[in-house]
Amino acid sequence: MNKEVVNNLVYRIKSALPENVKIAHYLMDLLSLGREAVYRRLRGEITFNLDELILISKDLDISLDSIVNPEKMEKYGILFETKMLIKDTSLKHLMENLKQTLNGHVELCKLANRHPEAKMSIATNTMPYQFFLNYRNLARIPSYKWLYQTQPVENMMSFSDYKVSDEIISLAHEFVKEYNTIDSDFIFDPNTFNSIVEDIVFLYKLNLITNEEVNLLKEEFLNLIDDLEIKTASGKFSPTSKISVYISNISIDTTYTFLEWDNNQVTHFRIYGLCSINTEDPTICKVHKTWINSLKRYSTLITRSADLVRIEYFNKQREFIMQKL
Predict the structure, then answer these.
(1) 95 and 60: one domain?
(2) What is the pLDDT of residue 89?
(3) Which of 21, 27, 164, 277 has its CB surrounded by the most CB atoms within 10 Å?
(4) Is the pTM of this model over 0.85?
(5) 172 and 30 assigned to the same domain
(6) Cβ-based neighbour number of residue 280 at 10 Å
């Protein structure tokens, strides 16, 4: 294994590990190797064998191609990564992937938050997770809907019986905390908040959600709208971060997220409801950023401006919620 490949491997492992985890300690535990054996591999004196690379790849969700053949990826294609593929629709698999996905987002945000100039931009046609994962009932709707779409009908549990672990709830709160400390631009489709309301109505008609649960969801949704309107008017996402909200005058076809800090860039495209495909490819990141910024041309900034438009927009969301729920 040449030095370039070793350096690339070390870079990718460090990028995937939490900040407080040392790469040597991690590899010693994962590969059941002694300290000197690990350091000899990191220095390129001994080659990582295939079994060791596979273990690292699986544990950190890193593509083997991106480790051993980065030149090929640059020459022949763009590397995309994804989680939550519909290869196992069991509840256990969903919980494991929710935990893995939330962990990944938390660590990514922690990495970005080390740089005060970090910036996130989101153009979306559905409610972003940052706004509702702190709400106990609303937070469960997207994953519950995912279960409904992927489970056999006879196996479907009621919303009352659908539980998530305290660990996942804690991760969700940490996710929101970390994301909300990054300066952010949001471009909302005119009907951004409608889809989750329609999901609730649909599930209610199937007798999967009770009247009492609908009322709880409605109360949480109205509280969310109130909180978001305050943040939008003030331009403060948190005590240490800023928010700018735009209302698009044209439809947005999916959710596009672009995160940048220092010399790093990451893009996300939301797919399959809960999933995303991600890439750090410079070309895709540049196009992604250009596309999101282009949507601002067709949008109205309602943060600390356009007061009438802002008030009318949030009142329209409240009216829709009250009518439907």
Answers:
(1) no
(2) 67
(3) 27
(4) no
(5) no
(6) 16
